Amino acid sequence: MSGTGALMTVHVGQCGNQLAQAFWKSMVDEHGINERGQTTHEDDMNDKKDLLFYQADDDHYVPRAVLVDLEPRVINGMMQSPNFSNLFNTDNIFMSDHGGGAGNNWASGYCQGM
């Protein structure tokens, strides 16, 4: 990608990850990328999918995204859905080992996120 920039999206918490689900559904549809990260049509020279996706070693596209949540329900739902189960890089996903969220307690969330 010479001369162009790339964006990284960061989605935090229930709301952020629900927005991520809608956002990335729209982006894969717009750029013609299927649930396995493969393009569904001929590459268009004007399509700037490299701005939001990176091309992995096996030539599939992966969202430039980090997903973070202390309560895993939303992210697990995304990862189990047919649209996203093979799309995201699992190294870019953080869920708390506790799995119960912070319960609107800042100190608990701070400690779980460490």
TrEMBL record:
Claim: Nucleotide-binding is one of the keywords in the record: yes
SUPFAM superfamilies from the UniProt entry: Tubulin nucleotide-binding domain-like
Molecular functions (GO terms): GTP binding
InterPro entries assigned to the protein according to its UniProt record, in alphabetical order: Tubulin, Tubulin/FtsZ_GTPase_sf, Tubulin_FtsZ_GTPase
Keyword set, alphabetical order: GTP-binding, Microtubule, Nucleotide-binding
GO cellular component, one term: microtubule
GO biological process: microtubule-based process
Domain spans labelled Tubulin/FtsZ GTPase: 7-112
UniProt keyword GTP-binding present: yes
Similarity comment text for this entry: Belongs to the tubulin family.
Name used for this protein in its record: Tubulin domain-containing protein
Lineage: Eukaryota, Metazoa, Ecdysozoa, Nematoda, Chromadorea
